[in-house]
Amino acid sequence: MSENRIVRMAEIEVDPQHLETYRALLAEEIAASVAVEEGVLSLNAVAIKGNPSRIRILEVYASQEAYEAHLRAPHFLKYKTGTAGMVTSLTLLEADPIMMCSKP
Question: Residue 75 to residues 17, 28, 32, 55, 58: CA-CA distances in angstroms?
Answer without folding.
Answer: 23, 8, 7, 19, 18
